[in-house]
Design brief:
Elements: H1 2-18, E1 27-34, H2 47-64, E2 69-71, H3 85-90, H4 114-126, E3 129-139, E4 150-159, E5 165-170, E6 190-192, E7 198-203, H5 213-219, E8 224-229, E9 234-235, H6 240-251, E10 254-259, E11 270-274, E12 279-283, E13 291-298, E14 300-301, E15 304-305, E16 315-318, E17 338-339, E18 346-350, E19 358-365, E20 368-380, E21 392-403, E22 409-420, E23 440-454, E24 459-467, E25 478-485, E26 488-495, E27 502-511
Parallel strand pairs: 1-2, 2-3, 7-8, 8-10, 9-17
Antiparallel strand pairs: 1-13, 3-4, 4-5, 6-7, 10-11, 11-12, 13-16, 14-15, 18-21, 19-20, 20-23, 21-22, 22-27, 23-26, 24-27, 25-26
Helix pairs in contact: 2-4
The structure holds 2-acetamido-2-deoxy-beta-D-glucopyranose (NAG) (12 copies).
Length: 525
């Protein structure tokens, strides 16, 4: 009896741990990747193959942490080495199977390049879901075809645990990308998993728009979104991780974000954001890095997350240069971000050096009024009386249309404070280099801001913040509430604890009603 019983244990144990993740569990394990691709080479080598080899290493590392789903960034795999733009357009592109055809590229010897096939094989071998972004070529005929009979898309591809392509999402909001096409209409992509979560996908610039984001969030009730990006960070409001955190918070979404790293263009920033519960961890490196970040993610069940993340299931693996050749130890002292055109904003310098130690004002811009109540204290070190290296603050309010680097225009509604490196407006959004010693600072004891906006289903209003460490505030650091009355919603954002390291603290709305209009100019009040 005893022996049989023991054998039972021995035999059952391996079976138990092989049981697939159960749809009843309260969480799943996700991993995101901050990746620095090889994007050019002096030799005639296949760059996509070089990146594929790195991807396989990252996948094998993720497997050690029993990851259910692994996400790679945008545009960091299938990269062409050609200088000829015509060739470049399609060189590293691949046909991407239609999910309906249930194709496993691993088993299809001839039709797919290694950059698709080997990753399918890795998903199959290691039994995990993998999301990559791959340039797609698609044969076309007829009216809306290109002269060369090819449409080229910026496409996310999802493999299931059998290496089968189960989803394909073609980026709809292109950021320039003149060599890339987009579908006539957005094709929303969602996929189900064996752990009971249905995911939606968006790529980079998509996050700024109504379509497909609101289709996923409002129409389909998706609560877990994959975000692959090659972002160009902007101050004061759209630093990669700042926006990711506030978007995930405002929509209460589990956002799994993987960023293409290149500090020279302020690109990068990855993380796992648990909606209103805040971020688990953000990877934002000011050097060329390759980092795998793994976390347990609580499922949203009947609108609720029933689990606190187990800190022991949060892992960071930092690849060395010998593991992945693009890792570089050199830290960039400068920041290379873009800066929003603040000229059409209504702004006012806040004199934090005054003895009053408070500021109360209502500032309006094109019918949007922003109420600000601030309490602060200014500290100047005596070390260097002549230094002027410290942040100033401005109240900044706006209701209008902006341009995104000339590639699209969109409506924004903004109310709050921003930082500047001197008293001029044109210095706002600039950041002191890391080696500059800032010898004075303002501690905000309290910040209360409030903005009234027309109640609308056609916007996203977010609390947006960033501190000197370039991280957004944690959810315990602020409150954000909306009160709805007679078709008007009032948004309130309050600082919860005193801080001396703020760069931006604002309510930031995307108003889709003003999209595609001309950019608001300085003299259009
Ligand atoms: C893809 O996998 C095959 C078979 O293992 C291997 O021979 C080939 O080198 C791999 N290609 C890349 C780019 O890693
Ligand atoms: C680029 O490649 C295309 C297709 O091979 C060729 O027709 C064209 O002449 C090339 N352009 C240049 C500038 O070399
Ligand atoms: C081509 O595009 C136009 C809109 O740009 C659309 O009206 C038309 O139906 C399309 N034709 C085909 C065959 O899809
Ligand atoms: C697809 O993109 C290429 C490159 O920009 C362009 O020449 C072509 O006209 C586009 N095709 C369509 C149907 O828009
Ligand atoms: C990765 O390692 C480097 C060098 O040790 C370090 O500077 C960096 O902060 C690490 N990154 C993470 C995310 O731990
Ligand atoms: C913001 O500006 C737009 C366009 O001028 C206007 O239609 C809208 O009413 C303004 N918003 C508010 C809340 O007044
Ligand atoms: C004091 O500040 C001035 C102006 O920023 C700077 O030029 C000077 O080097 C600083 N001196 C010291 C000792 O840091
Ligand atoms: C303020 O900063 C801006 C931007 O760095 C710079 O161009 C300008 O010269 C500075 N002005 C003063 C008065 O220091
Ligand atoms: C948010 O919390 C994390 C973990 O405690 C901390 O490392 C990070 O600096 C915080 N962010 C800010 C902006 O304070
Ligand atoms: C609210 O908006 C609706 C639809 O635009 C309108 O019919 C209604 O009269 C408005 N109510 C108030 C109190 O303004
Ligand atoms: C400002 O915010 C703080 C922190 O949430 C809160 O305690 C205080 O009541 C607020 N003050 C006003 C005037 O709303
Ligand atoms: C938008 O800008 C274009 C180009 O500057 C101009 O031709 C057009 O009249 C503008 N439209 C409006 C509504 O102002």
């Amino acid at each position: 009896m005893k022996i049989v019983w023991r054998l039972g244990i021995v035999l059952l144990y391996p079976l138990l741990i092989k049981v697939p993740p159960n749809t009843c569990s309260l969480s799943y394990t996700a991993a995101v990747v901050e990746y620095t691709p090889i994007y050019k080479s002096d030799e005639q080598v296949n760059i996509a193959n070089l990146n594929t080899k790195h991807y396989i290493k990252i996948i094998e590392k993720a497997v050690e942490y029993s990851v259910d789903i692994l996400i790679f960034p945008e545009s960091s795999l299938s990269i062409s080495n050609s200088k000829n733009l015509t060739v470049r357009r399609s060189e590293a592109a691949s046909y991407i199977p239609d999910p309906q055809d249930k194709i496993v590229p691993c088993n299809d010897a001839n039709n797919y390049p290694d950059s698709l096939k080997n990753i399918s094989c890795a998903a199959l071998k290691h039994k995990l879901y993998i999301v990559i972004n791959h340039r797609e070529k698609f044969d076309c005929v007829g009216d809306n075809c290109s002269d060369d009979g090819l449409l080229i898309y910026n496409t996310n591809v999802v493999f299931n645990r059998n290496g089968e392509v189960i989803a394909r999402y073609r980026k709809y909001n292109l950021f320039g990308e003149l060599d890339t096409n987009r579908t006539l209409e957005p094709i929303i992509s969602t996929f189900e998993t064996d752990f009971g979560v249905t995911f939606g996908q968006i790529i980079c610039f998509d996050i700024m728009f109504k379509t497909p984001t609101l289709n996923l969030v409002h129409d389909l009730g998706i609560r877990d979104i994959i975000f692959s990006s090659h972002w160009y960070s902007e101050m004061p409001y759209l630093y990669s991780v700042q926006l990711q955190a506030s978007w995930a918070f405002a929509n209460d979404i589990n956002l799994l974000s993987s960023g293409y790293n290149n500090p020279k263009t302020a690109s990068g920033g990855s993380g796992i954001y648990i909606g209103r519960n805040g971020y688990v961890k953000i990877i934002l490196e000011n050097k060329r890095s390759n980092v795998l970040f793994v976390s347990e993610v609580p499922k949203v069940i009947d609108g609720k997350r029933l689990l606190n993340i187990n800190a022991e299931r949060v892992k960071i693996y930092n690849f060395s240069k010998s593991e992945i050749s693009t890792t570089e130890p050199d830290v960039y002292e400068k920041y290379f971000h873009l800066i929003d055109d603040l000229n059409p904003y209504t702004t006012e310098l806040i004199n934090t050096e005054s003895r009053l130690s408070s500021y109360e004002k209502t500032i309006c811009d094109r019918n949007v009024c922003c109420e600000l109540k601030l309490k602060f204290q200014f500290h100047k070190s005596t070390a260097n009386k002549s230094s002027s290296n410290y942040y100033r603050y401005r109240a900044a309010v706006f209701n209008g249309t902006r341009t995104f680097s000339g590639f699209a225009t969109g409506g924004v509604t903004v109310c709050g404070i921003i930082s500047c490196i001197n008293n001029t407006l044109r210095s706002c959004g600039k950041i002191f280099d890391q080696n500059v010693y800032a010898d004075a600072s303002t501690t905000f004891q309290s910040i209360n801001i409030s903005m009234k906006n027309i109640d609308s289903q056609n916007n996203i209003i977010m609390p947006i913040s960033i501190a000197k460490n370039m991280l957004p505030l944690n959810v315990t650091d602020f409150t954000f509430q909306s009160v709805n009355l007679k078709n008007t919603t009032t948004y309130n954002m309050n600082l919860q604890n005193p801080r001396d390291d703020l760069l931006t603290f604002s309510i930031y709305g995307r108003n889709f009603d003003l999209d595609s209009l001309n950019k608001t100019g300085i003299d259009s009040k």
